[in-house]
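Render tRNA-specific 2-thiouridylase MnmA in 3D.
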Amino acid sequence: MKVLAAMSGGVDSSVAAARMVDAGHDVVGVHLALSSAPGTLRTGSRGCCSKEDAADARRVADVLGIPFYVWDFADKFKEDVIDDFVSSYARGETPNPCVRCNERIKFSALATRALALGFDAVATGHYARLADGRLRRAVDRDKDQSYVLAVLTAEQLRHAAFPVGDTPKPQIRAEAARRGLAVAEKPDSHDICFIPSGDTRAFLGSRIGVRRGTVVDAGGAVLAEHDGVHGFTIGQRKGLGIAGPGPDGRPRYVTAIDADSGTVRVGTAADLDVWALTGQKPVFTAGAAPSGAVECAVQVRAHGETVDAVAELVDDELAVRLRAALRGVAPGQTLVLYRPDADGDEVIGSATIANAS
């Protein structure tokens, strides 16, 4: 099989590429240049797609003895991931850019080019498993990335490979060291890759500008003014610009955001509880939607808790009734449905949250 190995320069994608070589496939490595002005060096675990990352990926490819290329996807990444991220926050939503990158870059734009060039599959270092075309959680639950892959269609998964999903992360690092790969102890990337400073509010503010509004309590009383709803997300407790806790002495949290009026509402922790979700643009990783209501577990954050639920497709939207409350769910987040089983939780599908109540 002819395989394109997406090599970020990290340990996971490096071992993934090595395992595909070991399996006897015809492997070519590719590093995605996602920034038009990549930094020279990483700052610890912050940032990605730097010149250092590209060089690390090239050195691994040399060790493996495979061809290596750098493909420029910077414009596509800006349009489909960064601009989407900014506009979503401007609407008062809370997006996950890793989900969008997998959906629109790695398994859409990249895979489309790979297939056009005659490759059979794209291999990545994601922690997830494929079994008979079904997407499942990784063996290492702490590193599991099935959540950010749940937006992939059955056709996209048919041309995907996740070679490290059956192995715990410490063993992946040990394997990289045995193979003589210099990235064996390289820190994992954290936070949002295109905001290496970690200051999301400043990043958004520089692109959205000042859009003044108010912070109000449950009764509508104005508590503070702000420079834009992009500085807030549902469930946020710090940085609200208000004098202190509520009349009951307890912390206050962002409970609702109205981007049109610029209103940020705050309330108690109990006000964050939701029991029902509506998801738009559903994707079912096995291809077909389940028939009727399905018992499942729902996850709304990349490494968040799951709760039991009943989900059903109603007029092209996912209607999800939770059996236990989730706290602090925001429009724009991705909801992922899992079918718990003895083999490690199969992904049923996903949707973008439009409403939570």
